Amino acid sequence: LHADLRILFRPQPYVGTDPGACRALQRHVTARLKDQLAMLDRLAATHPVWLDPDTPSVLCYYWACLMRWMALYPRDNDRRWYDPARTPALLRMISALEERTAVQAARTAEGLGPHPFSAPVLATPPEGSPT
Questions:
Q1: Which of 24, 41, 49, 117 is least surrounded by CB atoms within 10 angstroms?
Q2: Secondary structure element (H or E) that encloses residue 10, with its range
Q3: Cα(89)–Cα(46) distance, integer angstroms
Q4: Per-residue b/e over 31-49, b at no fewer than 16 CB within 10 Å?
Q5: pLDDT, tens digit, for every residue of 110-129?
Q6: Residue 112's pLDDT is what?
Q7: 20 pLDDT above the threshold of 80
Q8: CB < 8 Å & 24+ apart, contacts of 38-46
Q9: Which pTM value belongs to this model?
């Protein structure tokens, strides 16, 4: 999944700078990402201990961050393919993570908005730059 996100965000190293080729590769990658999210959602639903927001592991936070990035980037690409409602087990996990003290602290410090994983917005930190 992580490698596919890199390709989605920067297709040029793989197909050159032709906009049509970049869009075609991005469409292919988004189809794979949708499949991968569906598989992960089934795993989360059938083996909830792996992605349990009540006792979150680093995997919970990792997947939440990846899902945040899918919702936000690339900014100039059609992101309608990504809908966390299609992955209800993952949506429950990321929504529950948003209530955790650590995530609330990060929301404030980084200006991540009220729902940094389930309905993310671009960061607007109270000081400094998000980039």
A1: 49
A2: none
A3: 9
A4: eebbeebeebbeebeeeee
A5: 999 999 999 999 999 998 88
A6: 96
A7: yes
A8: 38/86, 38/87, 40/1, 40/87, 40/90, 41/86, 41/87, 41/88, 41/89, 41/90, 42/89, 44/87, 44/89, 44/90, 44/93, 45/88, 45/89
A9: 0.90
Distance CA 36, CA 98 (A): 23
Write out the two tokens for 38: 């569906």
Residue 73: C-alpha distances to residues 6, 55, 99, 102, 122 (Å): 10, 29, 24, 24, 10
The type of residue at 35 is: D
Rounded Cα distance, 113 and 123, in Å: 7
pLDDT in tens, 53-104: 788 888 889 999 999 999 999 988 888 999 999 999 999 999 999 999 999 9
Alpha-carbon distance of 45 to 51, in angstroms, equals: 9
